[in-house]
Amino acid sequence: MTNGSGRPAAVEVRGLVKEFGSRRALDGLDLVVPTGSVFGLLGANGAGKTTTLRILLGLARPTAGDVHVLGERPGSAAARARIGYCPDVPGFLPWMTATDVLTTAARLFHLPPATTRARTTELLELTGLAGVDARVGGYSRGMRQRLGIAQALINAPDLLVLDEPTSALDPLGRRAVLELLGGLRGRTTVLFSTHLLPDVERVCDQVAIVDHGRVALTGPLAEVRARYGVTAARFVITVDDPVRLRAALNREAWVSAVTESDAPGELVLTVTDPDTAAGRIPRLLADAGLSLRRFEPRESSLEDVFLSLVGASA
Amino acid sequence: MSRATGLSALLHLRWTELTRTWRLWALPAVMVTLGASGPVLARYMNDILHGVLGAGAAALALPDPTWVDAYAQWSKNLSQLVVFMVVVTAAGTINAEVRSGVAALLLVKPASRTAYVTTHAGMLAAHTAVSAFLGAFVSWLVTTSFFADAPTAPLFAATAAWLVFALALIGASLLASATIDTVAGAAGIGIGVYFVLALLGIAPWLASYTPAGLISLVGALGAGQHVTAAAVWWPLGTGLALAAALLVAAVLAFRRREL
How many interface pairs between A and B have CB atoms less than 8 angstroms apart? Predict the structure, then answer.
C-alpha cells in the first residue's frame, strides 16, 4: 500500500479484530495512514481508538487481522526505534525530573550525548518545561502531558502516535501542541486519537472516524466534509431579534430545524430546499421588520459528519 | 546486544532509581539494625530474663551466651523478618510500573521486555546481597566485641545460603508481579511460596535435596554445626536453579502480557 506520493503508508491495518473475553473492542477495523500526514483518529469514548493505538505500538496483541507499522511488525525493535508515543495520561517514575525523563528516553534510543543535550533543551523549551526542576510526581496533569509529548519527540520519530494529546491542556497549551503537530506535517507522520473535533479540523489533513470498533469513514479531511457532510443545506443568520425570526421560520414548510448558536443573535437554519430558502428569507425578514446583520451559507463541519455517522449508530 | 535490548539504559535507570529513593537505604538500614542488635540481645538475654523473672530465672539453669547465640539470632532474623521485606519489595516492582503506565512508556522504545524484567531482578538481587553482607559484617563486628572467639565463616556461610533462599523468593515474587496487577496479590504469592518451602522442609528428603532445605541450612550454618557438602550443595544448587527458573518464567509471562 502506498500513498499518493508513491511512498509506502506509515500504518496499514486490515481486518483488525480485538476481543476482551466476550467483548469485541475492534470489529474488522481497516486503516491506512499515509506517510507524512497529520492523521486524526476520531471517535466517541469506547469506540476503539486507544485499543487500535496500543496494537500499533505492540502493547496489545490483535485477535485477528494484519498490521504493519512503518513496514514492520508492530512492536518489533525496528518499528519501535522509529516511533514516538505519548498516552493520554503519561506514566513517569515520580522521583524523576523532566530532564531525567528525556535523557532516559534518549539513552534508550542511543542518541549521542551532544544530541541528547540539544534535544532536551529544545523540547523542554518547546513544551514550556524549561527551568522546571521539580520532580514529576508533583506535576499537574497538563505538565505531565506536555512532558509526555516532549519525550515522544526525543528521537525525532518517523511516526508520532498520540492518544488524546490535548485532553489535559489549557487553551494556550492546546494551541501550542496543535501548532507543534501541524508543524511536523511532511516530516513526521502524526497519528493522534481524539474526541475533540475542533482539534482535528485545526491540524489534520486526513481523518478516520471510528465507531463500534470499525472505521466508519476515512479520507482527506476536506473530502470527508464535502462528501459526507449533511445532505440538507444550512444558513447562518444574525438579526436584532432572533426570537421573532425563529417563530417566523418555524411556520415555513421548507425549514427543517432552527437552532441557536453560541454567538448572540445568531441562528443556524437547516432547510430542505436551499434555493427556496435563499429567495424567501430576505422577504420574510422584511415582512417581520427585522434588521439583518449576517446571512450566509454554512460549510458542513466535521462535527456534522461525526454526529450524522456516530449519532445514527448510537 | 545492549543496543537492541536497552539493557544498559534500563540498568542505568534502575541504579538511578535506587540511589534517588528511600529504597537505597531501607533494606541496608534494617539489615544493619538487626545485625547490630542480634549480638547485643544474645549477650544480655540471660540478664534480661533474670530481670524479668527474678529468682525464678535461676531454676532455668541458663547457659552462658556464646557467639552461636548471636549468629543464630542473625539467621533467625534473616529467615523470619527480612525475607518478607524482600518479598514485598519484589512484588511491587513490575505491576506498579504497569499500572502507572511507566512500563508502557519505556517498552514502546527500543527496550526489550526481557531486559526490563532482568534489570529489575538484577538490581533487586544485588541490593539484597550487598545489604545482607553489610548486615552480616556489622553482626560479626558487634559479635566479636562481646565474644572474642567468634569465627567469621559460619556467619557469612549462613548469609550466603539465605541469599540463595531470598533469590528464589525474589524470582517467585517477580513472576507474580509480572502476572498479577496488585502488589498485595503478588506479595501474597511470594509469602505463600515461603510457607510452602518452610512446610516442605519438614520432610527430611525434601530438606536434603531441594530448596525446601534452605531455611534449616541457614540455621545450621549460622550455628556453626558440621554440615556435609551434599547437605550444603543440594539445597543451594536447586535453590539457584529454582530462582533462575522463576526468573525465566517471569520473563516469559511478561513478554505475553498486554500493557
Answer: 68
